[in-house]
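Database export, one record per block. Field names are fixed; values are copied verbatim from the stored entry.
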Amino acid sequence: MVNIKNFLLGKPLKSSEIAHEKLSRVWGLPIMASDAVSSVAYAGEEILIVLVPAVVAIGLQKQDAYRYVLGVTLPIILLLLILIFSYSQIIDHYPDGGGAYIVSKENLGKVPSLLAAASLIVDYILTVAVSISSASAAIVSAFPSMMNFKVELSLLFVLLITLGNLRGLRESSKMFGLPTYIFIFSMLVMIVTGFIRFFTGSLHPIDYNIAAQQAVAQKDAMVGLGITVLLRAFSQGCSALTGVEAVSNAVPNFKNPSQKTAKHVLYMLGAVIVLIFGGTTLLGMQLKVLPANGLTVTSQIASAVFGNSFMFYVIQIFTAFILILAANTAYNGLPLLLYILAHDGYVPRQFSHRGTKLSFSNGIMLISVIACILIVAARSDVHNLIPVYSIGVFVSFTLSQVGMVKKWRKIKGKGWHYKMLINAVGAAATFVGLMVAFIFKFTEGAWLLAIAIPALILIMVYVKRHYSYVGKQLQLKNFYPYYQCSAERKTQCIVLVQTINKSLLKSINYANSISDNVTVLHVCRHPEHAEELRRQWESLKIPIKLEVVLTPYQDIIKPFDEYIWERENNLKHGENLSVIIVKFVSEHWYDAILHNQTTYFLERILSKHKNVSSVILPFHYSPDVQHTPEHVETTHLSDDNTNRS
């Protein structure tokens, strides 16, 4: 299994190599831009889908729709610039990442921060499901014989992206970065070529079948062109903004100086969106392009500019690629958000652990599993998923803007009035977009978010309360092993320790009752934690040997196994070795997912040893212990150390 894992993911990396896994500007842009860049590929079409039928339905010519396109596009670009400014300020003030969650937590309080976190979790997972389903649809439309394998194709894409991200940031950036750059470059070539041809008089508007146009008009005859239509078009076009928040969520993933690198990537991302979204919109206006069945607006523009040439197929192929890779933004943003939430105690501690390739592998696997479930449930049909897409990111946009308004009022500083005004305008605009999107999409499926997001918040509150309960019962004020060593025994005993608490006291007392040769073992990935544990151990004057095994890797199982092999090889005839492992036991079966995952792997390893036995020592705690606010600070160290295990 280890060989298979190494073959798929590559050799494990030392913890000290984390700096080499950070993203540079060159590779950070495609990794963080894939979602936003893929969105602009269809954002203009989403605007036209709303405007063109409305204009034709009230008796105007189709060309008249394009008088309103700029009126919708320019506010979106302005909002983008406001968001870029806002998130660059967030990067300055919150270098540890977290984006809207951290901003809301500091400035708006617990409930808004959890709302931001839950909304981002939903949006990131839907990004994967929608992007992958869109890519599969594009491929199936080119190869109709694969229609019956659309779901399987989507699941294969999820598997490939998951595998790429599990191999580490550096490898995934190079693997997924090149197609993104090719797409960006080919779109810019199309825009420049299109305008050159337009100004030289060789590019003309596209002609459409009038009967088909009238059919569209008849279908939407009841739609009036007013503020409601414009707001709906604005809301649809704001899909171009999804992915902007990913950079601020993932600041620690960038090379030092991480804040400066992240801000540069954010500015580059904004420039790419403005150029591609603005350029394709202007070209579409000149060509008078209309949405057509089976033909996207982008493909029609490419066909008009390049004809049936090589560049047309490059645009088509890499549009499909970028839709697949749009999911990659979520694989970088969500695991880091879960890492921050895990440190705050709102999600299981396992999400704070890095894998052997120094990526947050548990978060990556969570995205993959839930996205696959959504794809199967929706039969990989984008229309079944799109009603609930992008609403979550609007919630986070609004909360982050409101949070920054409150922050400027608190800290003031140079030019704070103008900065606060910009954020206030951004908050109002994103709130309007949120309301319009939610209202128009409510009956189509957005009502699910009114259930899913509160449910996620309740789960996070429960997890936080649970860890607080456990921390309170683990808290130890006086360390006193009451079992003393007695007659000589043939059993050697190892007690595993992460932090000094009640469960350790119980383990040592049990070990003293069965052995006169007890060793307390700590396998550590963090030298500073090991030093702190040594100081505590010496200050308590515990008459038992403490051994610390330091590992440069994130995996503690292998060094633990090597230590056990060494101890086993030194056993004398008739001697045996017992390893005491604490297992947390609660009245609620569902609490098991929050604890004991490491225990399972330790048991598996110990079962391979002939003269070693594992002793599972249950530590019972009651979920009914009352939580008090004063306890939060006193148990912080204990919670943090539990997290390290």
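Remark 1: The radius of gyration is 29 Å.
Remark 2: Confidence is low (pLDDT under 50) at residues 210-224, 625-645.
End of record.
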